[in-house]
Amino acid sequence: MIRFEHVTKVYDQKSRPALDDIDVEINRGDFAFLVGASGSGKSTFIRLVLREDQASRGSVHVAGQNVAGIPNWRVPRMRRGIGVVFQDFRLLPNKDVFSNVAFAMQVIGKGRASIRSTVPEVLKTVGLEDKKRRMPHELSGGEQQRVAIARAIVNQPGILLADEPTGNLDPATSVGIMNILDKINQNGTTVVMATHDTDIVNSMRRRVIELDEGKLVRDEQAGEYTAMIPIVNRDGSRELRTADPRDQAIAPFDTEEDEA
Amino acid sequence: MRLAFILGEIGSGLRRNLSMVISVVLVTFISLTFVGAAALTQMQITQMKGFWYDKVEVAIFLCGDDYGSQTCADGAVTDSQRSAIKSQLDSAAVKPYVESYEYESQDQALEHFREQFKNSPIVDTVTADQLPESFRVKMVDPEKYDVINELFTPMKGVDTVIDQRDLLEKIFSVMNVASLVAVGIAVVMIFCAVLLVATTIRLSAFSRRRETGIMRLVGASKAVIQLPFVLEGVIAALIGAVLASGTLWAVVKYLIQGKLAIEYPDTAFIATNEVFLVAPGLLALGIVLAGVSSVLTLRRYLKV
Question: What is the pLDDT of residues B67-121, one digit of tens each?
């Protein structure tokens, strides 16, 4: 479903590549954790899959297509096959739950009838069937993230990319989110989740792809993630890191980067 | 569905940016009014040219007592001089240029004068011997005025030869300058309008960056993302163009047709159907200006 063939991504010629000769394949129906410290290349990985950026060398294949060969005007169509979930939810604050999910269908031209039948079904999948008229600010963090997941899967993408989906949530709520992602995966959707959360990785026992300074250092089928990556820096110093939304693959829509 | 959705997006965009949208409407309104006014002035000039050039004549004014010019040094025109001029007009050299001519005596001149200035008190103070007698020559081709001028100006008993077109040209040149000024103002205002549309679109794109960010990620096409912004600018400009057309129509209908045309019945004026010729141009201009400037702005400020 996602195949990287010797992919190198260089943002700036002077510094080291963000991704260095990555060769990995994620199959249809896989559930893969993408782990590694900040700056290890997780975000670049996700951006390359979404074709937000293009590989400097090597090729990225998504759903059997080499993304470098997709003309710009076809990129939106390719992105319809990929759902994305963020750490900071990114819901539209002036639309209720139903409309937030329906928005993803409206903008790709789905009909009113299909929206009316699909959205409640998806909201049921994420367990929000009785909150569809709530506004985002009336929901808890876990509920907001579930709305975001519903929006990501409402167009039935083959791939779901989750960029630190539990980063802003407490452990108990995170479990609920993981159950939903697992359920989506069991329905046949390929799920790739970038995370710092060791507990989740260890308890899920799914495939783990670990990146370090742009290199693939580990690819295990039922892996664990034990390195205390959020806490220990490379020089040995210890530090507690809080999740920073700016580390996300797709910067929040209200930052400066969006205006550039 | 998609259409309803895009219309909804446009509606919310217009509402969120109401003050900017109003300023776009007003600026396009003013600039297109000037464009239209310039076009209508040109039409008025063409209209008047067609109307007057059929009627203009070359006037050969004859000498009266104590006229200043050299050829009048001997005093008023004599009978023999008058008939010499007349036979010159009939001669083979002049004949091909002249369609017809008419002699106007001092009494007839006074009569025409009175008719022309019947509303003015000056009529009562003018007497026949203050007005020169003249030959009114209608040319086959009014451009050949120089031939008549050269032949008759040196003749004894001729005071001056006047081409009435010269008088009209003066009016037309004033009108031309007026329409050029209107075009100049229009150019500046259009420039303002383009910049204002660009700023409005930029603001609008900024205030809707969450929506557009999500649209990008769920794979909305470029057209669906950009169209609401472009149409926002186009609609505002279109309203401006409609207001401009309406204003021009009102001016022509009530000021020109309703007032000037009644006061000066022997002059040709433009009518409202000329406005209907200009209006589609104004609408198209408004659409093109707003469309182009918003597309260019989006290319810069809205990543798709």
Answer: 777 777 777 788 888 888 888 888 888 888 888 888 888 888 888 888 777 777 7
Domain tally, chain A: 1
How far B205 CA sits from the closest chain A CA (Å)? 9
> In terms of CA atoms, which chain A residue is nearest residue B303?
A258
Query: Is B2 close to A78, i.e. CB distance below 8 A?
Result: no
Domain ranges of chain B: 2-53+169-301, 58-163
Interface of B with A in 173-212 (CB under 8 A): 206, 209-212
Across the interface, do A253 and B210 touch by the CB < 8 Å criterion?
A: yes
User: Using the beta-carbon criterion (under 8 Å), do B303 and A254 form an inter-chain contact?
Assistant: no
A71 burial type by CB count under 10 A (0-12 exposed, 13-18 middle, 19+ buried): exposed
CATH class of B58-163: alpha beta
Mutation target vs B (from A51, A84, A106, A114; most B CBs, 10 A cutoff): A106
Whether chain B has a CB inside 8 Å of the CB on A146: the answer is: no
Contact criterion met (CB < 8 Å) for A108 and B219 = yes
Q: Which domain holds residue A92?
A: 2-259
CB pairs under 8 A between A and B: 76
Type and span of the H or E element at A183 = helix A171-186
Complex-level ipTM: 0.79
Cβ–Cβ contact A106 with B under 8 A: yes
A110 in B contact zone (CB under 8 Å): yes
Closest Cα in chain B, distance from residue A259 (Å) = 6
Which residues have a Cβ under 8 Å from the Cβ of B304 and sit 6 or more positions away? A76, B216, B222, B225, B226
Residue with tokens 């929000």, as numbered in its chain: A128
Count of C-beta atoms within a 10 Å radius of residue A51:
19
CB neighbours (10 Å) of residue A3? 17
Q: What is the pLDDT of residues B182-211, one digit of tens each?
A: 889 989 988 998 998 899 888 888 888 888
